[in-house]
Amino acid sequence: MRRALLALFGVAAAVELAGVVTHSTAVQWSAKPLLAPLLLAYLWTVRRRVDGVAVGLAFAAAGDVALLVPGRTAFLVGMGCFLVTQLGLLTAFLRHGRPPVLAVAGYLLAWAGANLLLWEALGPLRLPVLGYSLALCLMAASATGVSGRTALGGALFLGSDLLIGVGAAGVDLPGRDLAVMVTYIAALFLITTGWVAATADRAVPVATPAAGVPA
Length: 215
Description:
Blueprint: H1 2-21, H2 25-47, H3 52-67, H4 72-96, H5 101-122, H6 126-143, H7 148-168, H8 176-198
Helix pairs in contact: 1-2, 1-8, 2-3, 2-8, 3-4, 4-6, 5-6, 5-7, 6-7, 7-8
């Protein structure tokens, strides 16, 4: 079941990326809303409990749907959903372990530098982006206290959203949309599987038939 869910996630990811490359909104609608729920289902089969990562994936699914709708209002709704995602991940990661001080300092410097560079161009989005990006950077920093895989996932999540912020500031880069989705999909996968691996000792074991008892 777990492998099947990850395989379905791979299929959904491939379809989503094909939709981005072909600029097909219909294809993206058929695949993007499935990404986070498939990983959430995978997480549930292992841990059987609601934690910060599960909450984060649930709100990521809502944010993905919101960001498929054009317009500033939908963008802000999506940002709000992903803010809850970052806070959920941050809470889970901090409960697991303390991140290195240098990682926290480095991410805070990156947060300050990125907002300084984009401040003028963001216009009315300045304050929402300022708050959201702080939560994002703190999440990425806290991921370094869990495992190398979650740390990479947090960094890729930051990179994906930085590309979105650059676009919101009016700067368009070749292949930006594809890069946003590739890094985002990789981030979700690495964070979820990394969290599962790091908390394997807390997972709920699957019951097996006792000796002599028919399955």
